[in-house]
Structure prediction request, 261 residues.
Amino acid sequence: MAVRLILTPRHPLLLASYPVPSRATQFRRFAVQNCVSDSGESRKLVLEVKEKLEREYSDLPLGRNGRDDEEMILWFLKDRKFSVEDAVAKLTKAISWRQEFGVDTLSEDSVKGIAETGKAFVHEFLDVNDKPVLIVVASKHLPAVHDPVEDEKLCVFYVEKALSKLPTGKEEILGIIDLRGFGTENADLKFLTFLFDVFYSYYPKRLGQVLFVEAPSVFRPLWQLTKPLLKSYASLVRFCSVDTVRKEYFTEATLPAIFKD
Prediction:
């Protein structure tokens, strides 16, 4: 099956060139990062972002994951190295996307049909590093059969569900893509880039690592096409065996059932 590479100019992972900041700008950002070492300084920046969003983007929703969600604002400030302007720019896109995508309306019932394929699930236990675990069974992903919109909804619903399981003090989740039985009929470059795009644009620094388990040779060409698009996110990927998953990421009691055989 031929894999089509679809590039759109708005894809944040595909932007080849950004303005290179001047030395002065770089110095200011460095200084800000180093001065934001206490809650008082970070609180000031959170309020600055919050006020700017209220003043310039009053049409954005309020509440959890809205323009006044201080926890969300702080997270995006950290992601943007405490640059207020950069955080506001990324936040407005993320909040608008959540509203347009209907993230808050997703539920077990709304994704039930596609979830029954068993192509993905959130594991009931944390890994040994106390990270929630999102597992994708690649052999059950059939892009020629399944509705891509439903696939995207399922993806976002499970990302939200995994994040809701974060223990206090933990910030990242573990992604596991089980590639056993993967064939050309499962290849979906567009969805794979969508998955990483979601984390890059809307859930920055929430994805700690991605395990590609037992990748067959047929998967390698797809990865070679995808890897350059992911840039720094490609460094989160680790190719490994089932045995590695068993020994390094779970205990006997917490090991996902699909890796027990």
The chain has two domains: 40-103, 109-259.
